[in-house]
Amino acid sequence: MTVRRSVVVGVGAALPRDRVTNEDLVRRGVDTSDEWIRQRTGIGARHLAGPGETTVSLATEASRAALAAAGLAADAVDMIVLATTTPDETFPASATQVQAALGIHHGFAFDVQAVCSGFVYALATADNFLRLGQARTALVIGAETFSRLLDWNDRTTCVLFGDGAGAVVLTARDGAGTAADRGVLTTHLHSDGRHRDALYVDGGPSSTGTVGHVRMKGQEVFRHAVNRLSEVVDEALKAAHVAPEALDWLVPHQANRRIIEAMGRKLGLPPEKVVMTVERHANTSAASIPLALAEAAGDGRIRPGHLVLIEAMGGGFTWGSSLIRW
Question: Domain residues for 263?
Fold first, then answer.
């Protein structure tokens, strides 16, 4: 049986110029220490957007890199999905501004908001459009300037996040309908709005008329993340009839080293099969998975034919997974 698959043909990334270490945060007046941050999160540094660096500018840079890696001109793209919690403007959608910056005047573009799960949601959305024949080539982006939501007097949250963007180019191709096909094999999305108070921003245009700041109950988020991610990883493997030992790579949302290591142990994967960038990038929300994919594909770790599992959980709560044959 022939089926249509969404095949990854290019991936790219962009980081702000300003790299800020834990020691830099201390020098800037944050009441913390390198030891405190590393012990609890595994984070050593992050990139923070400066003047002139926005979600759209970072997303555009990452998209150009992904298109170059794919060997495609921008006008080959007929669909853009941008996952972000930090759009440049309330409207229009940041995706349409990326579309204009790339010189694309056809197709369609829109944003998706699922916080740290955003890239998985965007990938699933684009995959459905491509499988149904409503688009041929999609640009899927995760981009954030999350630092602009931070309360720099709250050391429990401000040390956790960074800024950046990653993008992948998907092209529709025919497959045989088996797990040996290249492309997105399965996607799974979930949410449960009852947990809003565990991780949220205390502002918005309809409620306060302000941007607001990130507020988080860290222990509650950690507990739910371990449980929900374990479930959605099992769901992906069962749907594709794949055993954990068949995985070549786990590329998780980069929020906390302890959560990442726990998922690797659950799957029986050695540490060298788990892509981890949290030490260098911190939590970049929707950008974290595509940034990690770009790094691992760029340095040759992820190669064509490899089986890659991605998973994420974010505020809402939202969570999801996808299994991809590279």
Answer: 183-325
> Do 156 and 44 share a structural domain?
yes
State the CB neighbour count (10 A cutoff) for residue 159.
26
To the query of whether residue 116 is one of the catalytic residues in this protein, the response is yes
Active-site option among 22, 47, 116, 224: 116
Radius of gyration for the chain, computed over Cα atoms and rounded to the nearest angstrom:
18
Catalytic residue among 22, 188, 256, 283: 283
Task: Give the dihedral of Cα atoms 161, 83, 104, 68; nearest 10 deg.
Answer: 60
The reply to whether 158 belongs to the active site is no
- Among the listed residues 64, 118, 108, 125, the one whose alpha carbon sits nearest the alpha carbon of residue 87: 118
Q: Which two tokens stand for residue 4?
A: 């249509």
Count of domains in the chain? 2
| Residue tagged active-site, from 188, 253, 256, 281 | 253
Angstrom CA distances, 318 to 19, 119, 195, 246, 315, stand at 29, 11, 10, 27, 6
Shared-domain flag, residues 223 and 320: yes
Task: Specify the pLDDT at position 223.
Answer: 92
**For position 59, which CATH number holds?**
3.40.47.10
This model's pTM is above 0.85: yes
The reply to whether 55 and 169 lie within a common domain is: yes
Catalytic (active site) residue 283: yes
The residue ranges of the chain whose pLDDT is under 50 are none
Last residue of a domain, one of 108, 141, 175: 175
Q: Where are the beta strands (DSSP E) in 136-279?
A: 137-145, 163-175, 183-191, 199-201, 214-216, 249-252
Q: Which long-range contacts (CB under 8 A, 24 or more apart) does 272-276 make?
A: 273/247, 273/248, 273/249, 274/249, 274/250, 275/249, 275/250, 275/251, 275/301, 275/302, 276/42
Q: Which of 116, 143, 175 is the last residue of a domain?
A: 175
Same domain, 197 and 113: no
Domain check: are 112 and 215 in the same one? no
Looking at the structure, tell me whether residues 314 and 254 fall in a common domain: yes
Residues 6+ apart with CB under 8 A from 28: 20, 152
Taking CB atoms within 8 Å and a gap of at least 24, the contacts of 207-211 are: 211/148, 211/149
Owner of token pair 């309360």: 151
